[in-house]
Design a protein that fits this description.
Blueprint: E1 8-12, H1 15-25, E2 29-34, E3 37-42, E4 45-51, E5 66-69, H2 75-84, E6 89-91, E7 99-103, E8 109-113, H3 117-126
Parallel strand pairs: 1-4, 5-8
Antiparallel strand pairs: 2-3, 3-4, 6-7, 7-8
Length: 138
């Protein structure tokens, strides 16, 4: 039986650049680094960066992305830091809670989001998506 998310591994084309992006700009904790990879962390998240020269750098058209949590007070500060670093945005927020959608140096789609599953479900119960069904009680 699954018990939760174990880790995320992202293929990167420039390990040092990605360590700076995730470690300094997004402020994940650098745990370990070696010639072809690095481990970083946040409470409840283990992120592995793995050097892969075959990584496609073009922006994929699908909605696949990785979201990080932040609180309402820190959200504007984080977005300002990302904008000051000229990080590219890839989508406008269209859902409950503040969100900022942006790209890492290798084009991985990321999001910082204020809220959680409970707040999303509450908003969806108030204004459900087309065809939406709920299988749990509020």
């Amino acid at each position: 039986m699954l018990s939760g998310l174990n880790h995320l591994t992202l293929a990167v084309t420039d390990l040092d650049r990605s360590v700076v992006f995730y470690g300094e700009l997004l402020q994940l904790r650098l745990e370990a680094k070696w010639n072809s990879g690095a481990y970083l962390s946040l409470p409840g998240l283990w992120l592995c960066l793995s050097f892969d020269p075959l990584r496609r750098t073009e922006l994929a058209a699908d909605y696949t992305h990785y979201a990080f949590s932040t609180n309402a007070e820190d959200f504007p500060v984080l977005v300002a830091r990302l904008n000051a670093a000229r990080v590219a945005s890839w989508r406008d927020n269209r859902s409950e809670g503040n969100s900022f959608y942006f790209l890492d140096p290798d084009g991985h789609k990321l999001e910082v989001h204020v809220g959680d599953l409970a707040s999303r479900l509450k908003a969806c119960r108030h204004a459900p998506y087309a065809g939406m069904e709920f299988f749990t009680e509020p």
